[in-house]
Amino acid sequence: MDAKPAAICAACNRVLNEGRSAIYDSLFDRYFCDNACWSDWYAENWAEYKRKYVSREDL
Ligand SMILES: [Zn+2]
C-alpha cells in the first residue's frame, strides 16, 4: 500500500488517504475525518454555516 495522502484533518492532523471520504469545509478549504472532528475545530457549529459550506467529499 502506498496510497498517497490526499488531505490532512485540520482538527486532529490525521492523514486522509485517497479513496476514502472526508468532511470538506469549502469556506476555509479544510478537510476533516468526520463530523466530530469538524465540530471540534469549528466550535460554534452553526447549522446554517454547515449547510452552506460543509459537505462529505470523496478524496
Ligand atoms: Zn480528524
Description:
With 59 residues, the protein is an alpha+beta fold. It has one domain. It is 24% helix and 34% strand. The protein has helices spanning 35-41, 47-53, and strands at residues 5-8, 15-17, 21-25, 30-32, 54-58. A hairpin with a 6-residue loop joins strand 1 (5-8) and strand 2 (15-17). The radius of gyration is 11 Å and the shape is globular. The two termini are 16 Å apart. The mean pLDDT is 91. Bound molecules: zinc ion. Residues 9, 11-12, 14, 32-33, 37 line the site of zinc ion. Zinc ion is lined by residues 9, 11-12, 14, 32-33, 37.
Relevant terms:
34% strand, binds zinc ion, three-stranded antiparallel beta sheet, 59 residues, alpha+beta, 5 strands, 2 helices
Helix-strand layout with pairing:
Blueprint lengths: L4 E4 L6 E3 L3 E5 L4 E3 L2 H7 L5 H7 E5 L1
Antiparallel strand pairs: 1-2, 3-4, 3-5
Bound molecules: zinc ion.
Zinc ion (ZN) binds next to loops.
> What structural class do the secondary elements suggest?
alpha+beta
Ligand identities:
zinc ion
**What composes the largest sheet?**
3 strands, antiparallel
Strand order in space, largest sheet: 4-3-5
The percent range for helix content is 10-25%
Give the low-confidence spans.
none
Rg estimate, integer Å: 11 Å
Give the averaged pLDDT, no decimals: 91
